[in-house]
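> example.struct
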């Protein structure tokens, strides 16, 4: 079977969306971390932008391995985006122009210095920015230590960006816009501070220039993107009639929220469907509490009730109704107003996404790392209500389900996937829910030690946890 490439586009079935271009576009963006999420998400926006302006092509840079960029290069940057939804579809994306791996340092450096590059984006996961626990640059991180000692070929994305900016400053070239696209809270401010801190260790003038001249807008991104597997390759080959070894898949819903810093770059992305706002934090808060908080609730309650995936859990009428009520009654009242964001419409969109049977999002995956997620996904909503003297019953039950989940796993000998797995298993191994909860609070595992000063909330969570552990689910339908 022939491989997907530009020469094959005209022969694709008529129903397959494809670029109007006949060759890769010119390069205007450098992207670090061209994994599945980037290719399913940001690249689809850029592909739309390219329809009207061919100067926005993406140079894909992989710092750790060459597999993805080699697969893209073999297909001239083309790949299929499969939309997994009630109305499935296929779209060939042609947004990428260059393909650089770990051995292409000189070419990457040249691109970062190139005046035609207007934007640098990153999807390197939260840990890829080499930040300390307080959000500042970790100057003791091995990659940062290496880059400060040997800046010619950096290992960290921060080192690469600062090196590129230094070259542009030396040449009198205006800086590119730097845009992190990982869901790290307040990502723009944190990444800019990291760039300044890195530069300041060796060049105070460069640090001051970065502080004054470089725009690093905050962002929020969202779209469920299941991993590519053999089944996807087979599905795509059957639909297109050509082989595609770089195909990706996602749900139909996609969101790219960008801080409006007054840059033409951001305005161009808005023309492709991104949302510009002066309140990224408000969008982050809504996603964290509505989508992520509900996801965690479905994960812990759903696993306890015998479900395996989000869509399966949403088929449980009692649980689906409970989650809907939690969003309406407990979560939305705590959200800050955001211009352009209708919280009830967002609630409906989230629940519709959860019901999508074409996306198999496993509950055990969502349940992982609960000790790190629970404080922000559910704990902040609890705290907001308790500050008003209110008891959010649905959130209390959701938190109780996490405690019951830990108890069930620990006593069944099933591993708990969490950085604090050993401590969680020890805390939940024996005793009633009230005792387990006291241990978790004392150890600051998922619950702040401050919760100990709120005996009413502690008691309510303990009651819910014991009921969930005992399989008493009448509470899901409580008023």
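> example.seq
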């Amino acid at each position: 079977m022939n491989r997907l490439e530009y020469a094959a586009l005209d022969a694709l079935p008529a129903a397959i969306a494809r670029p109007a271009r006949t060759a890769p576009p010119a390069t205007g963006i450098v992207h670090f971390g061209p994994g599945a999420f980037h290719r399913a998400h940001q690249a689809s926006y850029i592909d739309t932008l390219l329809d009207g302006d061919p100067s926005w092509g993406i140079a894909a840079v992989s710092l750790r391995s060459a597999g993805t960029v080699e697969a893209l290069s073999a297909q001239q940057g083309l790949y299929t985006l499969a939309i997994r939804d009630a109305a499935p579809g296929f779209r060939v994306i042609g947004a990428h122009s260059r393909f650089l791996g770990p051995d292409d340092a000189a070419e990457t450096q040249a691109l970062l210095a190139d005046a035609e590059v207007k934007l640098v984006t990153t999807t390197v996961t939260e840990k890829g920015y080499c930040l300390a626990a307080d959000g500042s640059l970790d100057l003791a991180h091995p990659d940062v230590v290496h880059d400060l000692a040997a800046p010619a070929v950096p290992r960290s994305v921060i080192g690469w960006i600062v090196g590129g900016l230094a070259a542009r400053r030396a040449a009198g070239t205006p800086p590119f816009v730097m845009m992190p696209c990982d869901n790290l809270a307040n990502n723009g401010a944190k990444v800019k501070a990291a760039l300044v801190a890195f530069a300041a260790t060796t060049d105070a003038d460069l640090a001051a220039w970065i502080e004054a001249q470089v725009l690093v807008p905050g962002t929020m991104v969202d779209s469920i993107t299941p991993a590519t597997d053999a089944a996807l390759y087979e599905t795509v080959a059957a639909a297109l009639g050509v082989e595609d070894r770089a195909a990706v898949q996602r749900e139909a819903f996609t969101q790219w929220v960008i801080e409006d810093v007054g840059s033409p770059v951001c305005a161009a992305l808005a023309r492709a469907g991104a949302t510009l706002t002066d309140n990224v934090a408000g969008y982050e808060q809504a996603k964290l509490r509505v989508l992520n908080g509900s996801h965690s609730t479905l994960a812990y309650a759903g696993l306890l009730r015998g479900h395996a995936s989000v869509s399966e859990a949403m088929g449980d009428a009692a649980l689906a109704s409970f989650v809907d009520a939690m969003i309406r009654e407990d979560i939305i009242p705590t959200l800050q107003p955001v211009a352009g964001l209708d919280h009830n419409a967002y609630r409906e969109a989230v629940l519709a996404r959860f019901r999508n049977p074409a996306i198999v999002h496993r509950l055990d995956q969502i349940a992982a790392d609960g000790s790190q997620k629970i404080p922000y996904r559910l704990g902040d909503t609890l705290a907001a209500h308790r500050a008003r003297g209110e008891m959010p019953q649905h959130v209390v039950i959701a938190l109780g389900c996490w405690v019951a989940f830990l108890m069930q796993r620990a006593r069944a000998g099933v591993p708990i996937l969490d950085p604090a797995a050993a401590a969680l298993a020890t805390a939940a191994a024996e005793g009633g829910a009230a005792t387990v909860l006291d241990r978790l609070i004392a150890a600051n595992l998922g619950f702040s030690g401050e919760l100990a000063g709120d005996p009413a909330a502690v008691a309510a969570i303990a009651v819910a946890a014991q009921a969930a552990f005992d399989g008493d689910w009448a509470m899901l339908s409580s008023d």
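> remarks
The chain has 20 helices and eleven strands.
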